[in-house]
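COURSE: Structural Biology Practicum
ASSIGNMENT: Worksheet 4, Part C
STUDENT ID: 0417
INSTRUCTIONS: Below are two proteins. For each, the amino acid sequence is given first, followed by its structure token string. Answer the questions at the end about the second protein only.

PROTEIN I
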Amino acid sequence: MKRIVALPIVLFTLLAVSIVNIAAVAQTAEKSGGKKSTKTASKKKTVQMEKSASPSISKALATLEEMNKTKPMVESLEEALKDPENVYRLNLSQRELTSVSPEIGKLKNLAVLSLYGNQLTSLPTEFATLTNLLSLDLGKNRFTEAPKELAGLKNLKVLYLSLNQITSIPPAIFKINSLVTLDVAGNQLQAIPADIATLPNLMELNARVNRIETLPQAMTKMKRLTVVRLDINPITNKESKRIKKMLENTDVRVAY
């Protein structure tokens, strides 16, 4: 099963939709000519612009999409180590791995890595040196906490931690300021920490199928947040309404 960098495509779609919406709103305002319509359109346009990724993030996502089209996918670490400087995409998914070799740190230009569907509980210290990583899939492993090595991945845009046994989101995650998509679905999370608001570029949060009952008020500061998925969490109807009101400019999906 390959699912490497699926979400960035969704993000590009969201950005494209935002641009189309801005154009449509502006056109409606021009045709109406009314002060009230113009004011409303201007407000909607401002909201959409706030949702857009920063220029540096947009450029990085474009680079990621281009790599997925042009760079070959290497299917083993042994093969990758034959020419480590020219490896950009590596698929080690579903190999029954219980550990990752420290030699992975030699892949200095690695941008896309899938370790999905293994039996990992930790990562080697050398993993933190993979500073060119843009997309990392650690889904469906046996992590009980997010590895501290993730804090060193300063350029990471997409992080999958779904289908593990993680009970809380550690501070290490909140040090990745470049993060655009965070997927923690299918874990044992009981809360989303207020520190998530320190991720200035986060656009998509998937926290489906956990034990979350509420979201922190601090998330109102997340101006680029576009989609929040909270399906299948023990969130009451009252709390669901509060969350949607709090994040009124975000697509919040709550269903049990």
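PROTEIN II
(use this one for the questions)
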Amino acid sequence: MKSVLGNKRKKQITSSRLGKYLLYAIGEIILIIIGILIAVNINNYQEKKKNNTLKCAYLDELKTTIGHDKDDAISNREAIEKWNPKLIDLAMGIYENKLSETDSLNAKFGTVGNYVYFVQKSISKIEELKYSNIELIENRTLKNEILSYQNEQITALRHKEKQYETLTEDIRQYYLKNFAGFNYGNARPHDLNKIKNDKLYFALLRERIGKNGNLKNQYERLEKKQEEIIGMIGKELEESCQ
């Protein structure tokens, strides 16, 4: 009888110990899981913070480079606005047969050869936006505006510039034959009477005036888009990077 009671007591003790061990093991597992979750959350937080720092730095750099784009667009537009009245005076002098009476004639002849080219500082930052392994801009409206700036506005400008460059080369070739060099300040014709009556020169001059006007309008549209994007980036920096 004592033996039976002893065995029963041993089983109860063993069962109690096993239960305590299981509770201890489960507790350990729970603590390990909690530790892992905390570590994951901390890692996610740190990764998110790191990415946000990268995004803010990117936005700040992009804003700066588009600002440089805008400065170049303004400079080019203002140059065209300065040149075109001189070209119009030159064209009117030819049209009204009063070319010899036109003031600063050689300077205006030289202005015909002047040209502009847009230097885009933001191109590398926009390419980075396309191919980065993190979402540099989460604001879809802003991202679409930036991509539209590159794919539409800049593409349209480059198309006009290509036409402009072709005309510039035609003018250069004409000047090398009919003027004392191709000078962007002053250009003296070999024979002024020939220039007065040369339909080819008048056609080149009129085309230059027209292309200058088209390019000026394109720069104005570009400046407007640049200003919009700079404002949007500034707002994004205020809301996400303070």
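ANSWER KEY EXCERPT:
Q1: Residues 2-240 form one domain.
Q2: The CA atoms of residues 109 and 141 lie 47 Å apart.
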